[in-house]
Predict the structure.
Amino acid sequence: MATLNDVAKRANVSKMTVSRAINHPEQVRPELRDSILHVMAELNYQPNAAARALVSRRTRVVKLTIFEDMDTTEPYYMMLLAGISNELNQHQYALQLATSNSYEVGECDGYILTGIRQKNYAWVEQLRQPVVFFGRNQQGYDYVDTNNYQAIQDSAGYAVQTGYTNLVFVGIAVDEPFETDREQGFRDFVTQTGVGARMIRLANHCHVATDYVRQHWREFPRNTAFICASDRLAIGIEDGVILQGGRVPDDYGIIGFDGVLLNQIASKRLTTMQQPLEAMGRAAARLLLANIAHPDTESQPHAQEKIIINSRLSISESTRA
Amino acid sequence: MATLNDVAKRANVSKMTVSRAINHPEQVRPELRDSILHVMAELNYQPNAAARALVSRRTRVVKLTIFEDMDTTEPYYMMLLAGISNELNQHQYALQLATSNSYEVGECDGYILTGIRQKNYAWVEQLRQPVVFFGRNQQGYDYVDTNNYQAIQDSAGYAVQTGYTNLVFVGIAVDEPFETDREQGFRDFVTQTGVGARMIRLANHCHVATDYVRQHWREFPRNTAFICASDRLAIGIEDGVILQGGRVPDDYGIIGFDGVLLNQIASKRLTTMQQPLEAMGRAAARLLLANIAHPDTESQPHAQEKIIINSRLSISESTRA
DNA sequence: CAAATTTATGCAATCGCTTGCAAAAGATTT
DNA sequence: AAATCTTTTGCAAGCGATTGCATAAATTTG
């Protein structure tokens, strides 16, 4: 591989000038700069990342750590990934992927964290680089999230508006902010409107939801709408309802959350609260890069930044029009 | 951060000894080594990856490049990812993720390539590091693949064996080896057994398959089995069949390929040819690491290595028992 | 027990690049 | 035209580790 020195010699300048032509183009005479760039292309010169990182203390790598033991069938992360990856690339940053198994491998300038649980915070605290979360947290870390509270109210509102008179919130059995926010949104909605309602919590698997419906079928009268905290639960609920002979959407409405299964399944046209995951990924990457570029100073400690990107209801065939 | 020098001083040795204690433990006196390790822990010393990479010319990074414009709802890649990631971590290698947009960002010791198309080979050829593919190729690159040819024969065989008398192969409309191998397997099976059969090719989306079934419903008599080249197509076909009033599996059988949707959907218990994706990911990582460790020499050029991991049929409710 | 051999440790150079300061060249002012 | 300021370029040092060779210590051998 050609080095900075090779380029310098060939262009009859010192390597410093070449270095500047790359990193601070405005500091070098335009014509000179062009001829240097030309030589660089000629030699197919690529700066050595390791050498750069060594002296500049910038790896130009961002690590995405997925905590939830990488649920390999969950498209959610893939969609975040796409957004993050695209944004980082625009800024010439590389994306490194880590899981619960690989905390320690490799270096980076900052972390994007997702699928995190309470038990993981101890690990997060000992990180020395900037951190951005997916999902609200009370520990003061910057985060990107969707409007969970309001989104559920919207879903519930839509269900009531289309004539369902009995609501069931089907939550995920975890005590994380994203879940409790949704539950609170639902609870407040019920209080405010006085609609008949109940809440259940299930493990986030289709068949669990299907089984639940089978076993508790009698408890769900006609005109019930299920407001679910994930598309998986929604799909499972729908299957259960259909298996019991319930008609969707005429007698039973089902609303999902996430919007990750839309393209996956043809006949299942699920009404769902769609998260703009690509945009959320991009936002997280941008936020992190900003934090990397402007590190906190002692005099001005870090103020938590929150970016909320609203989900919107995607209305389809599992609810009335 | 503590450096090698810091550790050396504290341990009263030269930094060389510390370096050896890390990289060639057998070369340093056991007791000395232990005390060095102790100091390292005390100072929370982590070797600087950049400095290491600079001199050793090893980044300890492997790049996974996904070519197919990252289809964000495709769990296939996530499952590969899990396998690759786990294997790499065991060897203290980091995984970097790249897409069609980000060919050039970041350095690595080798590439794992997936979702590749003919047009991408020009790019691949100019890579200087070892490469491992997912999927057969005739360009001489090492690869990991499943037994596409035989797998389809197994699927078809099972369909015939369970009494379906008419077979339809539903392929993906691309001219890549994985597809042509499957088609050839099907074609040969038909020739050998003389069973009634036909082949179609569709874009790999559920609704395309569903629409196709609707429009060509008359062409599919009872007792037809659809052998599909992906789970998506299978799901789409099944929906189409059901919408037309066909009974699954009594009158129509459906077999998928990949096995990525199994946990996703409860009532859709699809019979599918399950690829061992996690194992394939691990195998690819292992193969690549071996290639990195033992680079080709001039005297002994590279011989293509092929690793085939067999898929097996996972029998469920979309075919007869 | 001295010589030869093996095993452990240290020294110096180097990887490719960027930072801080200094010098040279060019432009502007008085 | 001398003095000052600004822009452009170069020099030297060093980031934190590893490689090759040299030296010191420990062990074996005749």
